[in-house]
Amino acid sequence: MVSIVGAGPGDPELITVKAMKRIRQAEVILYDRLVNEELLEEAPGEAERIYCGKAPGRHAASQEDINRRLVAYAMQGKRVVRLKGGDPFVFGRGGEEALALAAAGIPYEVVPGITSAVGAAASASIPLTHRGLAASFACVTGSRCHEDGSPVRWDLLAHGVDTLAIYMGVSQLPYIREQLLLHGKAGSTPVALIEQGTTSRQRTFLCTLENMHELAKAVKLGNPALILVGEVVRLPGQLALLERNVSTRIG
Ligand code: SAH
User: Coiled-coil intervals in this record (predicted)?
Assistant: First the structure.
């Protein structure tokens, strides 16, 4: 039996009860780079911990290799946990692993996790939807590696979706900006860049579609980071103002 488990967006407390149970019962854990290592301490001491991380642009273990190892450990009758950052089925390649397990006749389950767009938005106090401002949001990849198979429809996203949560976009900011401007999104559209969302190292920067690239360069934005585009990004400013008013009233 293999459990494909979401570890949540970074803060180790943002894992589900079910995911934690699976970690505590694991005999083998194959984990990714974005998994908070504190969670591994929850596994039994004798459990085997195998790092399968890929830094952007580099590959520690190929996906085929990971799939093969999952199958091999499961065949040995071990309780296998495949632990992934965020949610395994949101840009996590969990689907490919599920297919490989199914093809080998191995039973598996998927334990969802809080995806980083949801986690980072919450930590930055940015609601992904908001009455009157945003009736929809989309999770989008900013990585052009995906474009061979299923190209991102920036033309439709620029008009059809209110809030864009862009994953894997740090190295593609000029391209994302160009695409969204080309398809009619205003340069003044507010943008939040959220680095290491939900962790104690989180940095949040507010800017616009027009200047997000310069800002990211100036602050040396690193991975992992999420790009939120849309009017909802203005809300934390309003919330902060309200909080200040409340505290001056109370104070
Ligand atoms: N399955 C993961 C996504 C993996 S793709 C999930 O559901 O969240 C990797 C991308 O996720 C990164 O490039 C970054 O855009 C985003 N990401 C992951 N953790 C993050 C964090 N703590 N803060 C901001 N973005 C994060």
Answer: none
Q: Distances in Å between the alpha carbon of 17 and those of 5, 22, 210? A: 11, 9, 42
Which uninterrupted H or E stretch holds 213?
helix 212-218
**Radius of gyration, alpha carbons of the chain:** 20
Fold of 2-111: Cobalt-precorrin-4 Transmethylase; domain 1 (3.40.1010)
For residue 241, the model assigns a pLDDT of: 67
Contact 228, 165 (CB under 8 A): yes
Domain regions of the chain by residue span: 2-111, 116-237
Is 212 labeled as catalytic in the residue annotation?
no
Among the listed residues 241, 12, 230, 21, the one whose alpha carbon sits nearest the alpha carbon of residue 128:
230
Per the annotation, the verdict on 21 as an active-site residue is no
User: Does the beta carbon of 32 sit less than 6 angstroms from any atom of ligand 1?
Assistant: no
Q: Give the domain 116-237 fold.
A: 3.30.950
Axis-axis angle for helices 63-75, 94-103 (nearest 10)? 50
Ranges of the chain whose pLDDT falls below 70: 54-60, 146-148, 239-243, 245-251
Q: What is the model's pTM? A: 0.93
Active-site residue (options: 11, 84, 87, 168) = 168
pLDDT tens string 124-140:
999 999 999 999 999 99
132 vs 40: CA distance, rounded Å: 42
Q: Which residues pair with 110 in a beta bridge?
A: 4
